[in-house]
Amino acid sequence: MSSASWAATAPAPSYHVAATTKIGGEGGWDYLAYDTNTHHLFVTRVGGVLVEDVAAQKSAGTIPAIAGTRVHGIALASDLGIGFTGDGKDNTSTVFSLKDLKVLRQIDLGHAPDAVIYDPHSKRGFAFAGDDNLAVAFDPHSGKRLGEVALDGSPEYAAADGAGNVYVNISDKQKIARIDAQTLKVTSEWAIGGGCEDPTPLAIDTKHRHLYVGCRSGVLAVLSADDGSLLASLPIGKGTDAIVFDPSADLAFISCGDGTVSVVRQDAAGKFEIAQVIKTAPGARTLALDPSTHRLYLPVSDQGPMLPKTEELPSRPAIVPETFRLLTVDP
Question: Which CATH superfamily is domain 3-330 in?
Answer without folding.
Answer: YVTN repeat-like/Quinoprotein amine dehydrogenase (2.130.10.10)
